[in-house]
Design a protein that fits this description.
Layout lengths: L10 E2 L9 H7 L9 H18 L5 E6 L2 H12 L5 E6 L2 H12 L3 E6 L8 H10 L3 E7 L1 E2 L4 E2 L5 H7 L3 E5 L18 E3 L12 E6 L1 H8 L12 H8 L18 H17 L1 H21 L13 E5 L6 H12 L1 E2 L1 E2 L8 E5 L7 H15 L1
Parallel strand pairs: 1-12, 3-4, 3-5, 5-8, 8-9
Antiparallel strand pairs: 2-10, 6-7, 9-10, 11-14, 13-14
The structure holds pyridoxal-5'-phosphate.
Length: about 375
């Protein structure tokens, strides 16, 4: 019934993947080099440098982990935590809950800081949690909670966390390339993202960055990370010439996803050609345009502090959730997201990420929804 040879060209307006520019798809199709070919290593080095610019960091240890955003989450967790470590995780949606699960699997004792889904954490709440759990070694927050559409404010958090000798970890999967994110200025010690959200690259790599404090924590480990594949002390010997120290060559760890690296390099080049500030401003303008249109139709936003990259709106009473999404897909070719977790059946999630954050897409989804909900 479905054509398995030629996938359709959908208009991807869900929680990711976002639409991929033709330039990025073409880059994916370039000849495959060997993972130790000097030309490939130059492409990888350039990709890491572009990532530093997009993360707005000078962290040497910045590279794309092989795997999607969840691999980045696991990479940060397994390298920074040892059994028995205490962690505070902000849980206000699906991804905070996953971070808690992943960190518990590292043997950490996770103190979940909870607010209702859709809400965000205040500096006062974070301070109170640090007072309550003074042995905390890591505080982790989700910048853009894709399950609820809420934007977590991050400025000022690092000062509190560092004051207690802890590390500040951030999930930036749905914010990198769409929202202001200043890794160095905001004192973030370790961060991970994904390629298929606001960077508009296919899924498959997870950009990560570790700062000096995180590096010191890893170097002082008493136990090996339980994941060999995601062990940064091994990965850095491949991704950084001389393992980030002077001299020394590259050491094979695993075969890097060569063609995905081409795609990511191209996607990052597109981000920087547009300019980070211009891109972030575009995401805000498109969000405002969509929000104005949705509210004029009587639809309302669930979070108080909405993301510009993902719009989480309540499904009007008496509306058939699945039928509306099916009509959007079949009649208009538009994919939007269903509610996730406790929001299942209660919310729609409309993504305006990267290449998909355009007047054309905003006006198209508004027209389609107006027609279908009539
Ligand atoms: C999508 C997402 C992830 C997981 O990324 P995958 O690429 O699906 O593995 C993690 N955190 C947040 C906030 C996300 O939106």
């Amino acid at each position: 019934m479905f054509n398995t040879q030629f996938p359709a060209e959908r208009i991807l307006m869900g929680p990711g993947p976002s639409p991929v520019p033709a330039r990025v798809l073409r880059a994916l199709g370039a000849p495959t080099l060997g993972h130790l070919d000097p030309q490939y290593l130059a492409i990888m080095d350039e990709t890491c440098e572009l990532l530093r610019q997009v993360f707005q960091t000078r962290n040497l240890l910045t590279f794309p982990v092989s795997g999607t955003g969840m691999a980045g989450m696991e990479c940060v967790a397994v390298n920074l935590l040892e059994p028995g470590d205490e962690v505070i995780v902000g849980v206000n949606g699906v991804f905070g809950a996953r971070m808690k699960d992943v960190m518990e699997r590292c043997g950490a004792t996770v103190h979940a800081l909870e607010v209702p889904w859709g809400d965000i954490f205040s500096l006062e709440q974070i301070t109170a949690a640090l007072d309550q759990f003074p042995k905390t070694k890591v505080v982790a927050l989700v910048h853009a909670e894709t399950s609820t559409g809420a934007l977590q404010l991050l400025e000022g958090v690092a000062e509190l966390v560092h004051g207690r000798g802890a590390l500040f970890v951030v999930d930036a999967v749905t914010s990198l390339g769409g929202h202001t994110l200043l890794v160095d200025d905001w004192g973030i010690d370790a961060i991970y993202s994904g390629t298929q959200k606001c960077l508009s690259c296919p899924p498959g790599l997870s950009p990560v960055s570790f700062g000096a404090r995180a590096l010191a924590r890893m170097d002082a480990r008493k136990t090996k990370p339980q994941s060999w594949y995601l062990d940064v002390s091994l990965l850095r010997k491949y991704y950084l010439a001389g393992g980030g120290n002077s001299g020394g060559g590259r050491v094979y760890h695993h075969t890097a996803p060569i063609n995905m690296t081409y795609a990511l390099r191209e996607a990052l080049a597109i981000v920087l050609e547009e300019g980070l500030d211009a891109r972030i401003a575009r995401h805000e303008q498109m969000y405002r345009r969509l929000r104005t249109g949705l509210e004029a139709m009587g639809l309302s936003y669930i979070p108080k502090h909405s993301l510009h990259t993902l719009n989480c709106i309540g499904i009007p009473a008496g509306t058939d959730d699945a039928k509306v999404r099916r009509r959007l897909l079949e009649e208009y070719g538009i994919e939007i997201g269903a509610g996730l977790g406790v929001m299942a059946g209660k919310a729609w999630r409309i993504g305006l990420m990267g290449h998909g954050s355009t007047i054309r897409n905003v006006d198209l989804v508004l027209t389609a929804l107006r027609e279908i909900l009539k």
